[in-house]
Amino acid sequence: MSTLDMYMNGYSVGYFRRNNSGSNSFRYKESWLEQQGARLTEQ
Question: Where are the beta strands (DSSP E) in the chain?
């Protein structure tokens, strides 16, 4: 599995992962979700 840290405007917002099977996933960090003004994208 490969993991890429995702940032938005200098803030760490989550992780993009590619599993060994080739499937992709994205997960927001709890600290980003709790931050006032956090912007979310459609998944």
Answer: 2-8, 11-18, 24-28
